[in-house]
## 1
Amino acid sequence: MVQVDAKILENREIGSQRYKMALSAPQIGRQAKPGQFIHVRVSKSFPPLLRRPFSVHRVQGQKIEILYKVMGKGTEILSRKKGGEYLDILGPLGKGYQLPSATSKISDIILVAGGTGVASLLFLAESISVANPELSILVLIGAKNREELLSEGDFRRLGCGVEVATENGTKGYKGLVSELLEKCLPLSGDKPKLIVFACGPSEMLKMIGKISRKHRFPCQVSLEERLACGVGACLGCVVKAKGSTYTYKRVCKDGPVFDAGELIWE
Amino acid sequence: MMRKAKEKPPNLAIELAGISLKNPVMVASGTFGYGEEYAQLVDLNRLGAIVAKTITLKPRLGNEPPRMVETASGVLNSIGLQNVGIDAFINEKLPFFREYDVPLIVSIAGETTDEYVQLAKTLQGEKITGLELNLSCPNIKYDRKLMFAQDAQATHQVVSRVRKATSLPLMVKLSPNVTDIASIAKMCEEAGADGVSLINTFTGMAIDIENRKPILHQITGGLSGPAIKPIALRMVYEVHKTVKIPIIGIGGIMTAGDALEFIIAGAKAVAIGTGNFVDSLTSIKVIDGIREYMVKNKIKDIKSIVGSLKCPKS
Ligand SMILES: Cc1cc2nc3c(=O)[nH]c(=O)nc-3n(C[C@H](O)[C@H](O)[C@H](O)COP(=O)(O)OP(=O)(O)OC[C@H]3O[C@@H](n4cnc5c(N)ncnc54)[C@H](O)[C@@H]3O)c2cc1C
Ligand SMILES: Cc1cc2nc3c(=O)[nH]c(=O)nc-3n(C[C@H](O)[C@H](O)[C@H](O)COP(=O)(O)O)c2cc1C
Ligand code: FES
């Protein structure tokens, strides 16, 4: 974990209000694991006062990438940054996805991405395909419409199978990506070999959590909450998790990736 | 030829309630965890002191989320004193500090006076530098309607009873949610406190207009950050006119300039809260910035400018 002023190499619009930013951050690149994030100070003045978190989307040598959507003032300021400027970033932070071990019986992996949820899952797909090239990865990408689908080509280039779902039916399955997941599940006998990783809006993750309970397969979800410190100190970012009654876990430190089964969805 | 005498570096060290600090810059309770969370980013040994997250007798789960929201140059929080409880604090969190050479001030809170006394007694034999009584958390329900720091009599009672129970340096953290903070500070002094920390957060709220719902689950929360600095500064100024015990100035400090304002207004030390979230190195930058200011203005000793405010004669 380091806090550095990283040089922006590129900040490119890849779709309406969606950007990819590449930063020179060798230390963070070396340490980062899929599912971890960087905490970005978008401006030295305020507001916005607090940093904004973004998943590590890709690591290539000295370079790390984030993929983000303009949501409010923080991401709007970020979108106006130019190559050559410097950005104060802190990371890598949080606990990422737990990759299946080489000895596990897992043979099928499904990644489910909603919206900018593709950001952390591409890094995951890359890591899995390097570490366990024999595993087959199916990626399900969901969005409101065809224009908002992200990263399809990147996943295909890695050799992943890709299916898409759009809410208005302009491409692929018409409906929610969680419904598409249920349709894509292998026959029940094969479920012990399956693991699902999901990242996207909380409603989507909640539904996928439900499906994983019903069909009894392991499932890891990456949550989003408003963060302040990002390092586990302020206890501002908690979600409810199972305990003797219940307990609170920090999205920034105990997560953002959790086993769907350990969370209490409300 | 006369050799130019090398300028002695300015002296930032202070004595606070019997504690020797390398410099007057501390980190505030609840914003720096138990130290370990920031240890990879901040050289803890450089800090004046660390005030740990408030602990209570029993572990507390804290409030339902959402617990935090950003407002104009501020943050509203309603953590609700989530903490591991005194036993786990002593067994699991304290050992971490053995490797560091930094004063540790432990913040404690109870729902009753007896609980404060019990906490102070439990910590008496431990390797810690001092105690801070948090009488001012806006996010928990007390037996009584008011928080301790909103009631001069209750403040006097809890401070004097804890004073009898401990020989550790004793600071008291005050609430800004009062009409006359100086009179509460005076009570602390009379009851035997060694110092007062001011301020804790201001009660505030934020509303989601689309759903017409409060954003925080607890409806209200405590406001911190640059938004509160001018008010915190005025309170330090008022309290400094009223008490002789040292003041720790807290509220929206982001830069060395902010910290110096507090020191000139009368704070012997300052603590950084929300500033740690914005830049993990805020405390270190504030220390370096104070030193630069002293060199530039030929101030040899930081103590010489505490409360040095020059007001126009009326
Ligand atoms: C671990 C983690 C990883 C993330 N990775 C990515 C990523 O890779 N790409 C990406 O695009 N985004 C990612 N996000 C989300 C991203 O951090 C936010 O979209 C961003 O902080 C918004 O900042 P802003 O200042 O633009 O918006 P703001 O002005 O802060 O908010 C815009 C609007 O969204 C609402 N809002 C903001 N946060 C929340 C919330 N948590 N819950 C409900 N409403 C909210 C606000 O009320 C407001 O209406 C991630 C979040 C986390 C916690
Ligand atoms: C997330 C958060 C948690 C806090 N928790 C505590 C606490 O446990 N005990 C306490 O005495 N003060 C607590 N505070 C108050 C701070 O110590 C400080 O008094 C206040 O935030 C004002 O300073 P600032 O503007 O620099 O943050 C907390 C503040 C924040 C933002
Ligand atoms: S953001 Fe501070 S604990 Fe998670």
## 2
Amino acid sequence: MLIQRPDPIRPSEITSESVFVKRRALLKAALAAGLLPGTMARAQPVTTSTLGDLAAANGRLENVSPWADNPSLATTPYEYVTEYNNYYEFGTGKGDPARYAHTLVTEPWSVEVEGEAENTGTFTLEDILRPHALEERIYRFRCVEAWSMVVPWVGFPLGDLLKRFAPTSRAKYVQFFTLNDSEQMPGVRSRVLQWPYREGLTIEEAMHPLTLLTVGLYGRVLPNQNGAPLRLIVPWKYGFKSIKSIVRIRFMEDQPRTSWNMAASREYGFYSNVNPDVPHPRWSQASERPLGAGLFASRQPTLLFNGYAEEVADLYTGLDLVRNF
Amino acid sequence: MTRRQLAWLRNAIVALGLVPLAQLTARAFGYGDLGANPVQVVQHTLGITALNLLLLTLTITPLRRLTGRSWLVRLRRPVGLLAFFYALLHALSYAALDLRFDWPRLAADIIERPWLTVGFATVILLVPLAVTSTNAMQRRLGRRWTTLHRSVYAIAALGVLHFFWQVKLDTREPLVYATILAVLLGYRVVVSLRRRTQRAVAQ
Ligand code: HEM
């Protein structure tokens, strides 16, 4: 395992003033043309780290190619994606993560891999990321609380990483854990959930090409409140399945326990696939409020598997989606 | 406290009570903003303000007893009516913004979801209190007025229950409300028990 130190700034990273000025002019033009969300130019409580040499000093990720299947969906403004979050390790209010997640230390970062696989051990973030090409994927994101957004995430298919660990034939499930550190995460001092936060997928779900191991959004390194430096995005499942700030991956033969299911098993199942026909016990899941749509916008109908039925429905043939909610 | 001062105070209370609504309206129409999920902000603000005002009405009687200022009781009506007003707006905001006035849907929601049933009961039970809050009604009902208006404790409990039931997992905030309500109710019970024993001793 490599102990990582901050790299010295290379000459190529230093921006000359003329380029800087030109960039500002370009930015302004882009803003005026509506190419960038207007709020990006404003100071805001967004904290980003750098991902070693993958990102420029300003947090912009380099060598990201657009996904071939990107839909033509309007994306949710950056400020809403980064200021309205559920990340209970930093508090249960929607604004708490943006307010408090600056204390999260994402460098150095490493992930423990254990269980039913041949290449287990501890891997640094650089070990994990290096062989993979980053893609920008525009996905719908649906929270179990019936709000939704559309986000350009940056990452690569989780399956490509998992294959490197050579899971054995007994690996039927994969479990993931979030960092659990009360020094960095004020929210874990209260026991609203059992820490560490944990989530799980079947191995087929984990290997599905839509399941994205995510390091960025809007072309930048993930802000801490969005689960830096490494999180999952499983776009056909409710948001809480897309675990943040991953420090441990475990291959398992039996179905793993998951945090929200442990807290309220009647309300949150292991699968938690987005399904308009299976209501939460206390509210309907038939429709959703898109973030940023405004006070007077209508709710939008929720789609089966959040609109990814064509890609993922065959993962669940023969499974009763009402009982296995 | 003179009559004029009292009238002034009551107007001030109404004006103050309308501040949360004015703020919401201003934020909704471009002075500031309501953030990523404006519907939620509106519903939460109206609901919490209703509950705050409801609990505030309940603190007036103990406060009067503890301070000996009997004019305090004259402030109960504006605070109570404001609470009712916010509760109504809160329920209407759900009907309007989420359901687009789909009344059959609202009815189905209220029937199917116990926490909405409880919220609905809270609003409905506040109606007779609001209607009978006038001086004329108070005179006409006499002692029955007092009995009727004591039901506000049960109504507030329903409001807290509705709050408790709607949170996803973190019950700390509704627990605070439940505690305040328990203290206020406990105070009333103690006072009335003490009064009963005093009466028994006097006989
Ligand atoms: C028919 C009547 C009612 C309906 C339909 C209703 C509906 C709702 C809804 C939909 C929410 C959740 C908002 C969300 O999803 O975030 C809510 C929350 C709430 N309601 Fe009601 N409600 C009703 C009556 C009341 C009454 C009478 C009170 C108080 C006296 C009240 C107090 C609250 C409070 C305190 C919350 C929580 C706000 C927060 O989380 O900050 N509700 N109600």
